[in-house]
Amino acid sequence: MATKKKIKVLVTKVGLDGHDRGAKVVSSLLKEAGMEVIYLGMFQRPEGIVKAAIDEDVDVIGLSYLSGEHLIFTPKIVEEMKKNSVDDVLLLAGGTFPAEDIPTMEEMGIDKVFRAGSLTASIVDYIKTNVEE
Amino acid sequence: MKKKLSTDEMVKRLLASDRRSAARLITLVENEMDDHHKVMSLVYPHTGKAMILGITGAGGAGKSTLTDHLIGKFREQGNKVGVVVVDPSSPFSGGAFLGDRIRLQSHSQDDGVYIRSMASRGYLGGLSRATYDVIRIMEAMGNEVVIVETLGAGQDEVDVIHIAHTCLVLVTPGMGDDIQAMKAGIMEIADIIVLNKADLDGADRSLRHLQGALTAGSFEEGEWMPRVVSTVSAASKPEDLQGIDELAATIAEHQAYLRKTRAIDQVKYNRVEQELGLIFKDELQKIIFKGLKGTGKKREYIESIIEQQDDPYSVVKEVLNTYLLTGE
Fold first, then answer.
1. B11 in a domain, yes or no?
2. Any CB–CB contact under 8 A between A124 and chain B?
3. What are the recorded GO MF terms, alphabetically (chain B) (predicted)?
4. Residue B118: how many CB atoms within 10 A of its CB?
5. B157 shares its domain with B245
6. pTM > 0.90
7. How many structural domains does chain B have?
8. Is this complex's ipTM strictly greater than 0.95?
């Protein structure tokens, strides 16, 4: 009678970016899709994010960006993950930033980028497909 | 896509305080995976030494903020601290929004603090059983103090708090008069009542009501009478915080009382008794449903009850006789 494992997602914002509406909306949508969302909030440091991800044994880290810090903080988080051998967690990023930055972000180590305007179903499906494989 | 170590290896690392193994083992136990019982058997000999502190109260009372301060106090005393924060799961989607870590950030860089969020879910063996197991894993990890924080809404969450050695119930001004405080329920489980946000209007009156309700109860000679401690756990300046030291001292006093009077033995006895009951209930149900599976009998029983040819008590008796007492 083993229950199916719940998907756990850490949603957070890094740096000084004080816009959390998007992160909260995405968190709610993931909750409604049956996932357990650990909401870490704003103003986080890469070290704290990765430590929380380890402690909570999450399947996914979701980063929300708006203030143009995505190319600065993404490599720092990726590096912190590598340092702690966190190599089995999906790293997603979403928010508002130029479309031409997406390839750079993916090169830096983001598994999938969802810009503002992405369909909920596309985020949920991506997580479900990639976590449960 | 998660990589796997053997259960034995993970337990070995847990005992060496490896937080990743602790995290993986908690996931395994939370999801009631195959090795769940084995893990708990391996972990059990390494538990029983930690101080377990329960914190409960309505949403917004300030539980997480206060917990954050208390973690600091326990760290100052040289203790490693594990924290389990339970938040509700959505009854509709099964998902959850776990937001307590936001207020538990003072120690986000401290390796002596391990925090785990837990959704209340619809645990097969009940929330309290899953929480017991998570607490044990935190004990085996080497945490001298384990804090359990829950909303305290509903019987299941009150059961969770029963495992705590010292239980804090948080209230805030304006939550009702002494008549509310005298009603049976959450107040009865408190060893320490924390009147948080004591800088708000009406705090003095609330304090009087709480103390009035407590003195209306009867206590035996030498028995612990719940204390009321007023606190302000959130302030823009550290010097505006109030009552945190007094609260830490009152917790220490309650711990000393438990040890001195041997009341701790009774707490532990009650805890194991309750846990055994839960496990029996769960395991018996599994045996019986396994026995009925594929026979079509479950449906027959249910239909005969709906059609009033039978009643639930007679059916349970018959099933127990068939699947249990015969040794199957």
1. no
2. no
3. GTP binding; GTPase activity
4. 26
5. yes
6. no
7. 2
8. no
